[in-house]
Write a structure and sequence with these properties.
The protein has 266 residues and is α/β, with parallel strands linked by helices. Helix content is 51%, strand content 14%. The strands form 2 sheets. The protein has a 5-stranded parallel beta sheet, with helices on both faces. It has a 3-stranded mixed beta sheet with strand order 1-2-3. α3 packs parallel to α6. It is found in: Membrane.
C-alpha cells in the first residue's frame, strides 16, 4: 500500500485565525480525521515548508496582546519615572536652560548685532525697591547724556499678556547689559533669582561684560553665602555699593553711567 503524501495547503496569516477558532470555539466541535490538522503542511512561495499549519501560524502570525500590553505599560512606567525624577532633581534648571537656549538662538540668528538692541540696560530689581528705581535710578541714567541710556523695567516695558518668563528672557536679550540691584528684598524674590540666573547663563555663553551688580544695602556674609550664584559673582566680578553719604552720590552715578554707556554703539 502506497504511503500517502502529506497534504499541503496554501496559507497566509489571513487564515491563521482557523487555529485559534478550532481550539477555542466551545459552540462548535471541530474534528479532522484525515489529515489531522497538525499534519497539514504549508505551501509558501519557496515550495512546501517543513512547518506544519499550526507551527507556521504560531511562528509567523502570533500576536500576543498580553505581552504587548505588558511591554507598553512597562515602557510607559519607566518613562514616567524618569520624567518625575528628572523634574525633581533638575526641574529648577530645565525651564531656565530652555529659555536661555531660545534667547541665545535668537541672538545667534541676528544678521547684524549692531544697533539691534532695544534697550541699553535691563534692570533686575525687587518690586519693593521700585521707589528707589523711580526716584534715583531713572533720573540719573535715562535723563543723562549724550549718549542717553534706554532702561528696561518690568513695571513699564514688559509686554502685556505675554508669559512673564518669556518677558524676562526677551528683555534680557533685547538689552546690551543687565543691572542687578541687590538688596534683602532682591534675595527674597524668586523672580529676581530667575533673572539673575538667566543673566548669568548669558554671561557664561557670551563672555562679555554684560552683568553689573549694585548693592543697595549692606548684605551680611552669612546671608550672602546662602545664595551661591550671587556669592560666586561677588568673588569674580567688581560691583558697586550705593553710598549712604549723599555727597558721594554724584561720583556713584558718574561711575555707573560710564560703565553702562561704554561701547554703546557696539
Amino acid at each position: 500500500m502506497e504511503e500517502e503524501e502529506p497534504t499541503a495547503i496554501v496559507v497566509s496569516c489571513d487564515n491563521a485565525w482557523l487555529v485559534s477558532w478550532a481550539r477555542d470555539n466551545r459552540k462548535v466541535q471541530v474534528a479532522m480525521f484525515n489529515p489531522y490538522m497538525k499534519e497539514l503542511q504549508c505551501l509558501t512561495d519557496n515550495g512546501i515548508s517543513h512547518l506544519n499549519f499550526v507551527d507556521y501560524s504560531k511562528v509567523n502570525c502570533s500576536f500576543d496582546i498580553e505581552f504587548v500590553f505588558f511591554t507598553s505599560t512597562s515602557a510607559f512606567l519607566c518613562i514616567f519615572i524618569i520624567v518625575v525624577l528628572s523634574y525633581k532633581f533638575a526641574g529648577q534648571y530645565i525651564a531656565p536652560f530652555y529659555h536661555i537656549a531660545s534667547g541665545w538662538l535668537r541672538e545667534a540668528l541676528r544678521v547684524n548685532n549692531k544697533h539691534q538692541y532695544r534697550y541699553d540696560v535691563f534692570v533686575s530689581y525687587s518690586s519693593k525697591d521700585e521707589h528707589w528705581v523711580i526716584e534715583e535710578l531713572l533720573p540719573s541714567l535715562e535723563q543723562r547724556g549724550p549718549p542717553f541710556l534706554r532702561l528696561c523695567l518690568h513695571s513699564r516695558d514688559f509686554q502685556l499678556g505675554q508669559d512673564i518668563v518669556e518677558n524676562i528672557t526677551d528683555s534680557i536679550y533685547a538689552s546690551r547689559r543687565t543691572l542687578c540691584l541687590v538688596s534683602r528684598n532682591y534675595l527674597g524674590s524668586n523672580w529676581c533669582s530667575l533673572e539673575m540666573q538667566l543673566a548669568t547663563y548669558r554671561l557664561q555663553v557670551e563672555h562679555r561684560d554684560i552683568l553689573i551688580l549694585v548693592f543697595l544695602e549692606m548684605i551680611p556674609s552669612r546671608l550672602l553665602s546662602s545664595h551661591h550664584r550671587l556669592a560666586r559673582l561677588v568673588k569674580t566680578r567688581t560691583y558697586l555699593d550705593w553710598p549712604r553719604d549723599p555727597e558721594m552720590h554724584e561720583a556713584f552715578w558718574d561711575r555707573l553711567w560710564c560703565k553702562l554707556s561704554s561701547n554703546k554703539t557696539s
